[in-house]
Amino acid sequence: MDCLSRLRKNIETKVAISDEDFSKIASYFRRQHLKKKKDLLRIGDTCDELAFVCKGALRSYSMDARGVEHVVQIALEDYWMADLYSYLNNTPSNIAIDAIEDAEILLIKYNDVDTMCLEFPSMERFFRKLVEKAYSATLQRINSVKSLPAEDRYKNLLKNQPELLQRIPLIYIASYLGMTPESLSRIRKNV
Amino acid sequence: MDCLSRLRKNIETKVAISDEDFSKIASYFRRQHLKKKKDLLRIGDTCDELAFVCKGALRSYSMDARGVEHVVQIALEDYWMADLYSYLNNTPSNIAIDAIEDAEILLIKYNDVDTMCLEFPSMERFFRKLVEKAYSATLQRINSVKSLPAEDRYKNLLKNQPELLQRIPLIYIASYLGMTPESLSRIRKNV
DNA sequence: CGTTTGCTTGAATTCTGTCAAAGCAGGTGG
DNA sequence: CCACCTGCTTTGACAGAATTCAAGCAAACG
Fold first, then answer.
1. A157 neighbors A165 (Cβ within 8 angstroms)
2. I need a surface site. Which of A175, B8, B111, B153 has the fewest CB within 10 A?
């Protein structure tokens, strides 16, 4: 399926949209190919774009004081990715975004999101619902990181997002789950 | 300041609103007093309301398999609180909400949020921006829980939300920070 | 007052991380 | 087409951070 069809399908999971409106909406986006390991956003740059993944996989990660990477999010097809914090506060980003697999993405400038939302109220609604859902999922995740032992966090991922385990190297999964690759490896041996 | 003025001020940090519109918007909310320790939402109930805190403090918490409580969020004045997950998925809630201090709150049914947003596009925009901000803060928090040792998490809270430490019992703070009260106590002795 | 709630301290334990090393792909270039 | 990297995964031994369990104390509350 081509990029724009994926986008449209994604939008229509939450709001209805006419052919005419969609073609105008689509024109706000630009398409980009991103090779594996290439950066979409570097730490220190200001994030001013929102990405929709049509194909491949992105990750966002931060770096702690000792230089260790921590995966914040992993985005497969149909996921949205950005550093909202950097954008909302207009500050240099503390996180970086790169491609775990070769990726096709659609990009839209944040300022254009605001403009587009004023032009198309249904897009305002779409983004509200999108962010609500992402927010609630993230709250669940905090809870899981804080209240579950490493093994249970892995089991939950296995149950809820098995596709990640089939595609994404375990070093990234481990970091996403908040543990070392060594710990994850030992846990997998026991399960 | 009375409840509705607080609400209006909160909304106007993000969007402009006329007197006439605000009085209609206000009519969607109902006011409630909540005594310390009393529940707003119990685990297992379905959450269908969103709360705005005018006075006092609420917390949301989950319970793990061993019966240990884990504080998810603490909401002081001008914060919004709900179990979005329960609402969005229309499932019984895994979290409970109660009052840490006697509280005055404004409540709105989620269905009314949707209706109100259709009637007032600026409210749709308000909620989008509100949730965006909460979402980005939560992503930061995941990062902090995962990548910082307990002592640094405490120091960050001390820097960013010192008002919590002045008002909220340390047992809740400890749980919010993802550590035991004993650990927090030892950390505070060293700092 | 007596009871509850919150906070602190100590000692033992457990989980997870750290460090070091080795094996095993899969991809690349000669 | 093969040899060699490089990136990923696994294993073992050890260290360290944080939890658990137990107890005591102060302050708040009814």
1. yes
2. B111
Q: Is residue B133, in this structure, part of any structural domain at all?
A: no
Number of domains in chain A: 1
The pLDDT assigned to A87 comes to: 86
DSSP, residue by residue, chain B: --HHHHHHHHHHTTS---HHHHHHHHTT-EEEEE-TT-EEE-TTSPP-EEEEEEEEEEEEEEE-TTS-EEEEEEE-TT-EE--HHHHHHT---SEEEEEEEEEEEEEEEHHHHHHHHHH-HHHHHHHHHHHHHHHHHHHHHHHHHHHS-HHHHHHHHHHH-HHHHHHS-HHHHHHHHTS-HHHHHHHHHH-
Q: Residue B37 sits in a domain of what CATH number?
A: 2.60.120.10
How far, rounded to the nearest angstrom, does the alpha carbon of residue B12 sit from its chain's CA centroid?
A: 19
Q: What residues of B are in contact with residue A139 (Cβ under 8 Å)?
A: 72-73, 84-85, 138
Domain containing residue A95: 3-119
**Distance between CA atoms of residues A186 and A174, nearest Å:** 11
Q: What pLDDT digit, counting tens, does each position of B95-154 carry?
A: 999 999 999 999 999 999 999 999 999 999 999 999 999 999 999 999 999 999 999 999
Interchain CB distance below 8 Å, A135 and B84: yes
Angstrom CA distances, A107 to A55, A96, B190, stand at 13, 16, 47
Nearest Cα of chain B lies from the Cα of A107 at a distance, in angstroms, of: 18
Q: Which DSSP symbol is given to A43?
A: T
* Domain membership flag for residue A99: yes
Q: Is the CB of B181 under 7 A from strand D?
A: no
Partner residue facing B127 (CB), from A88, A128, A145: A128
Q: Judge if the beta carbon of B151 is closer than 7 A to nucleic acid strand D.
A: yes
Q: Given an 8 Å threshold on Cβ–Cβ distance, is B148 in contact with A85? A: no
Cβ of A189 near strand D (distance < 7 A)? yes
